[in-house]
Specification:
Elements lengths: L1 E6 L5 E7 L3 E8 L2 H5 L6 H22 L9 E7 L3 H18 L2 E6 H7 L6 H5 L5 E6 L4 E8 L2 E7 L5 H11 L6 H8 L24 H13 L12 H29 L4 E5 L6 H10 L4 E2 L3 H4 L3 H11 L20
Parallel strand pairs: 1-4, 4-5, 6-9, 9-10
Antiparallel strand pairs: 1-2, 2-3, 6-7, 7-8
Helix pairs in contact: 2-3, 4-12, 6-7, 6-8, 6-9, 9-10
Length: about 350
């Protein structure tokens, strides 16, 4: 079964052709990072316009790279939420138009479900031989969710962020340190020290809850930067050592928060393994540390499958295919679409 997966939930225009839910025949992403970098964040209107320019060429090339004709596709799957409304609308309407023109089944996929099923690409999950239930951590610029996957397409969302998402916190702290966008890779690159003389930043927690909170951690970084005199005026530029120490301590604090909750959830729900997904799952410190601390196997997709991509949408769609009886022509973009 060959499925065209389309992803336009935020600022990356992505398309892929996936065979049988795992084999990646093609996977292309048109990034808008250089466009948004000058603003230090994503401008929704600009993102929507760029999707319009990129989506048809990306889809055509993904089909060509897969070595097939559109006639050989069994279905078209597209992210219909959650995400930026304008960006989602581009993907949804193009998918429906192509489905109508090509006479293919068309249906929507939840963006978070896509991140979970990125662990099935290239047979990574099958090779792990894990059984359900599984604790899934989805951490990105827009989401930080902890999910118990009880079986295929069967989820319980047990925790989410109360304020900033983990990736959003990385972006904001990167701006404080005068680093580039997106913040996650920039902070990882700057965190060149293995230990610091700084006092550790707090690991925020919420009483009687596994929910995440990163706003207070971000504020702690800002207050220290103010005390050290390089934020917001910049009259005393931070030294390279200061930037490295701030980056290390902040990254370590975020990673500890993510790992501690995930392992706690895995223990409480008697999970047989852990899956990571989302852009923050590309962070090497997180990938290494959770593998060291977890007492159950950890499945982490390739870095190219952690950030937004069409392959994960095609993988999730493979498992949704049989429950979709016909094309969902009434499908709409749902910016706050829930997984459950």
């Amino acid at each position: 079964m060959k499925i065209l997966g389309i992803e336009t939930s935020c600022d990356d225009t992505a398309a892929a052709v996936i065979e049988d839910g795992s084999k990646v025949l093609s996977n292309l992403v048109a990034s808008q990072t250089n466009m948004h970098e000058r603003y230090g964040g994503i401008i929704p209107e600009i993102a929507s316009r760029e999707h319009l320019n990129s989506i048809i060429p990306i889809i055509n090339k993904s089909i060509d790279d897969a070595g097939i004709s559109y006639k050989e596709l069994d279905a078209i799957a597209v992210t219909n939420g959650p995400g930026l409304s304008g960006s989602l609308l581009i993907g949804v309407n193009v998918a429906k138009s192509l489905g109508y023109a090509w006479d293919k089944k068309v249906f929507g996929i939840n963006h978070l479900e896509g991140h979970i099923y990125s662990a099935w690409l290239d047979d990574l999950f099958e090779d792990s031989k894990l059984d359900f239930p599984i604790a899934c951590l989805i951490a990105s610029g827009g989401h930080t969710d902890l999910i118990i996957m009880k079986g295929h397409l069967d989820y319980d969302v047990i925790a989410r962020t109360r304020d900033d998402a983990a990736g959003e916190a990385f972006d904001k702290v990167a701006r404080v340190l005068g680093l580039g966008f997106p913040g996650g890779p920039e902070i990882q690159k700057a965190a060149t020290v293995e230990e610091t003389s700084m006092q550790s930043f707090p690991r925020p927690s919420i009483k009687d809850s596994m929910d995440f909170s990163f706003s207070g951690l971000k504020t702690a970084v800002v207050r220290k930067a103010e005390a050290d005199g390089f934020y917001p005026s910049g009259k005393i530029p931070p030294t390279s050592t200061q930037i490295a120490e701030y980056a290390f301590e902040f990254q370590d604090a975020v990673v500890d928060c993510l790992i501690d909750r995930t392992i706690e959830a895995s223990n409480i729900y008697n999970c047989h393994g852990i899956i990571l997904g989302g852009g923050v799952a590309a962070n090497s410190h997180l990938r290494n540390k959770i593998s060291e601390k977890s007492n159950v196997p950890v499945v982490i997709p390739k870095i190219s499958f952690c950030t937004d991509n069409g392959a994960m949408i095609g993988a999730a769609a493979y498992h949704r295919f049989n429950e979709i009886l016909s094309s969902d022509w009434d499908m709409d973009a749902i910016p706050n679409l829930s997984l459950t």
